[in-house]
Fold this protein.
Amino acid sequence: MTFHDGRFAREVGDVDSSAEVVSEFSNTHTFSHEIHGTVGTVQLRYSYRIYPTPGQRQALARAFGCARVVFNDALASRRQAHTDGLPFITDGDLSKQVITEAKRRPDRAWLGQVSAVVLQQALADAVMAYRNFFASLSGKRKGPKISAPRFRSRKDNRQAIRFTKNARFKAGDKLTLPKIGDIAVRWPRPLPSDPSSVTVIKDAAGRYFASFVVEVTERPLPRIEAETGIDLGLGHSRCWPMAGRSARPGFCVGLRRNSSAFRKCSRARRRDLRTGSRPGRRWPFSMRRSPMRAGSSTTRPPCG
């Protein structure tokens, strides 16, 4: 279970290091818990393994590339404005420059082949990365200082795109994504509610995952009458309020005896530093005997 910072960590789709997003994925599913909004409401993240077809993998690769280009163009525009001494480019002007106007240019016309939500979320990642960087410089962001946003590369071990509700994706028997199609999903457990967003991730091993963000109401655990605590101390192994105490097992004495015997055998078998010769086979039989087979004293007694 991984906790996120609701102020700065947006979603798993933030690949840039300045966003400092932490995520875990396994072959089947993992989930993370994040406090968000009003008291009693939490956001849960459920990640599932997906299996796109060869055609869908090409569409996902196209979406990964378009999102990476929008992110890099946003960083390049703000860096160039800073180098030229121009005012800071606002978020609205940046969106027009790297998405709306870029689609009309011949060198960026292929941006229209993917969902517009993917491009908008990639731009939102760049904007959030800059906000986190400025907040770290001013001291508003707690923790270690973070560096300026860096460009994404097609050789990165992890690629991710994010779809929100505006993309009108569907999570049924299959995951339906705009301009990609219906993707087969392994559902080890159902989603507790309708997801607000989904992030499609490709890891370094070439596996694909779908990470859903759902919002549920936190339910308190039922109150119980009896309380039980376990005290692991030196004098006793376990102390139960209702059942008494359990004596500490004495197997540590046997472990210490084994360690001493191993050290003694190691010294006996060591090569002589003066002559360079090893001890002969006629050294005491007790020394040649394995300390683990020395007797019943090395057997671990039952606990408690």
Summary: Residues 17-217 form one domain. The chain has two domains: 17-217, 236-298. Residues 28 and 49 are 6 Å apart (CA to CA).
